[in-house]
Amino acid sequence: MHLRRVLSMTAALAALALTACGSSSSSGPSSTAVVEGQYFILIRHGLPSDSFWAPVQKGFTDAGKLYGVKTTYQATGNNSSDEAKAIDAAVAQHVTGIVVTLPDAGAEGPAIKRAEAAGIPVITVNTGSTTYREVGALTHVGQDETLAGQGAGERLKAAGLHHILCVLHQQFNVALEQRCAGAKQGFGGAVTNQYVPGTSDIPGTEASIKATLQSDSSIDGVLTLDPDIAMAAKDAIAAANSSARLATFDLSNNVLAAIKQGKILFAVDQQPYLQGYLPVSFLVLYKQNGNVVGGGQPVLTGPSFVDSNNVDKITACVKAGNC
């Protein structure tokens, strides 16, 4: 379903639900009277400079403006204990709703439960599709990482590859582990996992991938799990004089350009704009009506696959910041 259609349907349903429950406004979710005093925060892992997160933030901000909700956005790096501290700080600030990534339920779960004990609803986003229930979150918004990995593996197999290097850029992030595990299931051939320094050290990441390719000539495919890591892998493949084909999870302008140039086979798109936008809608409806979306299952935003066949269309969407 086209993104704009999804968003218009979401807004229309939200407006109908809010009106049905006695809102005095006739303007639906654009009325600040409906959500007066609401303050939602999005807390996520990753560095502030990570390119993946820009559309998540835009979706979160856009939805906040639509509903008249105060929103703030915080990046905590790749340290789960820092993310847990940020959740506790949000509780102390008396926010009325929290949206949070969940790369490590063991580290962040207690803080999420403290938020819920304080009467603050929590929605997990992006990471946590298999663990959000155990920490008591209302629902999860994101893609099923195992299914996405399986789809990527199947496409790499169809491309005629035999040995894949799956590059993990953050330890203890269960979503990344699920992507590589799913890729192995879908690929059916040899898959080697490699941990790299990550987005905080792109030169070190490039050097690590290059060394692996030079030491094992049987590797004919590289799957990265982040768009910035994809660029490091592209340069590593060239520096190693390797013929390995490259695919990645997630989009950036550089990834889209590389797909158009034939240097990346495809990208797995989890539609991050929706991961920022939809939780605001869900929290507004929960606070207003007690609605819970998902029926106990995560709300999936992907995967969608971007390749040479649709890259021009998706490039326009990314340029607008709505993908």
List keywords for this structure.
323 residues; 6-stranded mixed β-sheet; Rossmann fold; single chain; 6-stranded parallel β-sheet; 11 helices; disordered N terminus; 2 domains; alpha/beta
Task: Provide a descriptive summary of the structure in words.
With 323 residues, this protein is of the alpha/beta class. The protein has 2 domains: 173 residues, Rossmann fold; 125 residues, Rossmann fold (3-Layer(aba) Sandwich). The chain is 46% helix and 16% strand. The chain has 11 helices and 12 strands. The chain has a 6-stranded parallel β-sheet with strand order 2-1-3-4-5-11, with helices on both faces. A 6-stranded mixed β-sheet has the order 7-6-8-9-10-12, with helices on both faces. Strand 9, helix 9 and strand 10 form a beta-alpha-beta unit. Helix 7 crosses helix 8. The longest helix is centred in the first third of the chain and has 18 residues. The radius of gyration is 20 Å and the shape is elongated. It starts with a helix and ends with a helix.
